[in-house]
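mind reviewing this stuff:

——
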Amino acid sequence: MALLDYVLQEPAYGWKDSTGNLVKPTVGEILKEFFSRLNIVKDRKNWLPFFSWLKVVCLIPFFFLFVFKFFSLGMLAAAFIYSMIIMGTHGTIWHHRYCTHGAYRFRNAFWRFFTQNLTINVIPEEIYVISHHVHHAKSDQPGDPYNASAGFLYCFLADVNHQPIAKYLSENDYHRLTLLMQHTGINPNTYVQYKKWGSLVHPGRAVLSWVLNWSFWYMVFCLLGGHALACTLFGAAGFWAVGVRTFNYEGHGKGGDKRRAGTDHNLKDMSVNQLWPGIVAGEWHNNHHLFPKSARSGFKAHQVDLAFYYIRLMYALGAVSGYRDDKKNFVKQYYEPYLEGKATRDRLLRHKRTDS
């Protein structure tokens, strides 16, 4: 079996049934799995999903302070820009295109660290990266950790129920797993530490990174706009942290086939290009599934790609040493054939109307 077939911790309800079909658990089964995997008293190996949601819970008070104490139209605009554009684009730049797909390379470790910490730290890299490799290998199939066909809650709680790594990998498999994260600069656990904590990253290093990141950004925001701005932007980060968990359900057609001819050229899965995530975060998802290792996914003229603009800027400044851009491949392999086919169909239709 390939490593990606068993690298994730399988939920109690399983990935597929005896006939090989996707298991679609009930709401009760999903919630039972969710709370079981957050129980660090029962098993300390549950620490990483617990830690991931702890950060979300810690952001909630900031959100309420923004709404009930510091609310103004100016702060609302700041919250909108930070949550929808800055946090979203950073997720695409860092977690998606770099950590998972290695679509570009940093000149040195400083610029990697700089980009990693451009925003408030919310999503653990390990939770995102390993599971996203599986998502591409098994997109919309049993084993896809956020398979939209299993429903909204299946995707929304996937970071706890489906995305953590398996807890009993062999030493050889664990070593292979660390290679998927090697370029990110994250210092992995030894195999002995992995068997103790059930994760690639050590909880001590994860907590220290979290505390330093939040302390730095709270201080910066306070210097720029006092506690009002700091609470507003931390609350906005919390809003994004919840909202981003809905993306893959929406981005794969909510379990149906929402692909459109001329817009979604990848026909191998149910991914779709959505205007809003594309504009605010560069997440042209159907394009991305065609060329996952491309630093650009906004291939058409109207497809704004803020994440790619950042990568291009960093390249111009010398912080990024190289990147991959598959726009020309997209145009040649998919868009031009589509336009030619459309022109042929239009001609045939006109001839048919003339003959009739």
Q: What stands out?
A: The first strand starts at residue 104 and ends at 106. DSSP finds 15 helices and two strands in the chain. Residues 3-325 form one domain.
